[in-house]
Amino acid sequence: MNNCFEIFNETSYHLEEEILNIEKLLDFTLKKEKLKNVEFNIILVGAEKIHELNKNYRNVDRVTDVISFALEDNKTIELDRRLLGDIYICVEKAELQASEYGHSFQRELSFLAIHGFLHLLGYDHMTETDEKIMFQKQEEILTSFGVLR
Q: How far is Cα 80 from Cα 114, in angstroms, rounded to an integer?
């Protein structure tokens, strides 16, 4: 079995090139991390949708940049492949943050995709130690793929 992921654009933005680059980055990451038989989705959404998800599932009443719903948190699901879950990325927030941080929109989308993906794999940043591990992993993946600040 092979890895399987899809990227859905639920916005009015024309993101064909950005989506292609994210697909290449994720293929690279799956190989680099030696992951096999995993399945997940990335859904590109607007501010209203991610605000709704953040409010309903995290009780946080604001727009955020990325939310991951990890299915592996539910250990009762046993399959011959790993269903990792879904990653929602807010395109407007990514665009705003790219401008704020002074890097490209593609770099910000790539960062958010990897950030969300690492959450699906169980990485987190709730403690200083966990944050250091996760952020170091993010930068290692992005840098080795050639996505620089």
A: 24
Number of H helices and E strands in the chain, helices first, is 5, 4
DSSP 60-84: --S--SEEEEEGGG-TT---SSEEE
CA dist., res. 122 & res. 114, Å (int): 12
Nearest to 116 by CA among 13, 12, 7: 7
In contact, 54 and 60? CB cutoff 8 Å: yes
Q: By three-state DSSP, how is residue 7 classified?
A: strand
Q: What is the pLDDT of residues 27-51, one digit of tens each?
A: 999 999 999 889 999 999 999 999 9
For the chain, the residue count is: 149
pLDDT band at 148 (very low <50, low <70, confident <90, very high): confident
Q: Six-digit token pair at 57?
A: 């599932």
The pLDDT of 42-63, averaged and rounded, is 97
**Angstrom distance (rounded) from CA 41 to CA 85:** 7
pLDDT computed for residue 82 by the predictor: 82
Q: Which of 119, 19, 105, 138 is nearest to 66 (CA)?
A: 119
Q: What is the CA radius of gyration of the chain?
A: 15
Is pLDDT at 90 greater than 70 in this prediction?
Answer: yes
